[in-house]
Amino acid sequence: MGALSAGRLWVWRGLGLALLLVLVVLLLGLAGKVRQLEGRAWDKTMGELEARARTLPLPLRDELLASLVCLKLQREGGLLNAQRSGAFMRAARGALTDGQLSPGEAHRVLEAARAACGQK
Question: What sections of the protein cross the membrane (predicted)?
Answer without folding.
Answer: 12-31
